[in-house]
Write a structure and sequence with these properties.
Number of domains: 1
Largest sheet: 5 strands, mixed
Strand order of the largest sheet: 10-9-6-1-11
Strand content: 25-35%
Number of strands: 11
Helix content: 10-25%
Oligomer: single chain
Distance between the termini: 19 Å
Length: about 220
């Protein structure tokens, strides 16, 4: 078991909503936000490998018309009802023909999601998840490190995003802070060789720092 630091980018989020997530509510999955109320057995039914793959590879695809729970007229995608929450810890991909590895930093991935590819404002959340280092899909308290090829053997077209999947909710005590970024301004900074600076930063005074625990993994 280890504590994996992650980033989460969310676009078009008001400072009030971001502050509520950091200090109180945590980050909820889309399924929770849509359903509102559910039971423990409902959670068990959602945490399946098929739903993991739908989240990773078919997030924006519409649900089939044969889906029993929702009406086709609602035009719902897999992502709209996903019990998982995408975060990034960065990734490294090996290009054997070139004889080198290429790093895809977590910050850049989170920034692109937070700003919808530098077109709007959004927040990057700094948090940590707990992982077993192997598949643990039915266990809500442990994240899935789908970027790890030794445990996740499925081909993932977006492997460079360095994805770590949280389940149902990222609790507020695991969220350290959130920074707001303006997409166009961030892009101008990057093009001029400067790192973007957040417009504001929301800190969590109730953050349960994992530093006193062992097996902490930093982001790439």
């Amino acid at each position: 078991m280890y504590f994996q630091k992650v980033l989460k980018g969310i676009k078009d989020l008001s400072p009030q909503d971001a502050a509520a997530m950091v200090k109180d509510k945590g980050i909820h999955c889309n399924w929770w936000r849509r359903e509102g109320r559910f039971s423990v057995s409902d959670i068990s039914e959602q945490l399946t490998e098929n739903n993991v793959l739908c989240h990773l590879n078919h997030y924006n695809d519409p649900l089939p018309a044969t889906h029993a729970q929702y009406s086709p007229s609602e035009k719902i995608t897999y992502g709209d009802i996903s019990p998982f929450i995408s975060t990034t810890a960065g990734s490294v991909q090996r290009f054997s023909t070139a004889g080198r590895n290429i790093c895809f930093p977590a910050f850049m991935t989170a920034l692109q999601f937070a700003t919808a590819n530098f077109t709007t404002r959004g927040f990057i959340f700094y948090a940590y998840l707990i992982s077993l280092g192997k598949k643990s899909i039915p266990l809500i308290q442990f994240a899935e490190e789908v970027r790890e090829l030794q445990s996740c053997h499925h081909h993932l077209p977006y492997h460079r995003e360095g994805e770590i999947l949280a389940k149902i909710v990222i609790p507020s005590p695991q969220i350290q802070k959130a920074g707001e970024y303006d997409g166009p301004a961030a892009l101008r900074d990057l093009r001029s060789g400067k790192m973007p600076i957040p417009l504001q930063t929301i800190h969590n005074v109730s953050y349960a720092a994992p530093d006193k625990y062992s097996n902490i993994r930093e982001i790439v």
